[in-house]
Write a structure and sequence with these properties.
With about 120 residues, the protein is α+β, with helices and mostly antiparallel strands. The protein contains 2 helices and 6 strands.
Length: about 120
């Protein structure tokens, strides 16, 4: 009987911890819904350049994104990002660099701007 009482007390003591873990998971899930995984091609254009570079849009939210860039050395602190299927242009600021991955925040957003129209104007 003593063992069952201890076990019951331990379960009651651990219940708030379990609830807090569930609450944390729900909170993380709501953050994940804001940050959607997007496996899209995008164009990175450095100011003063006419040629853009392909990059892969990995994660996307209203505030920023994570990009994977291959073969590009020295990404500047600020650049333009064109997401061609959506016809959207973002002015981006680099927040974190890690290997060939870059996390950026969006400074400005402009709708109905396509990369090919932008390049043909220059």
């Amino acid at each position: 009987m003593l063992n069952s009482a201890i076990t019951t007390n331990n379960l009651l003591e651990k219940r708030p911890v379990a609830q807090s873990l569930v609450a944390r998971r729900l909170k993380n899930d709501s953050k994940r819904s804001e940050l959607s995984r997007a496996n899209r091609l995008a164009w990175l254009v450095v100011d003063g350049q006419t040629q853009g570079f392909h990059c892969q849009l990995r994660e996307f939210s209203t505030d920023g994104a994570q990009l994977t860039v291959s073969g590009l050395m020295g990404i500047p602190d600020q650049f333009l990002l064109f997401i061609e299927p959506d016809s959207v242009r973002f002015t981006c600021k680099v927040m974190l660099r890690k290997g060939n991955s870059v996390k950026v925040s969006f400074i400005e957003r402009e709708e109905n701007v396509r990369y090919r129209d932008f390049v043909s104007c220059r």
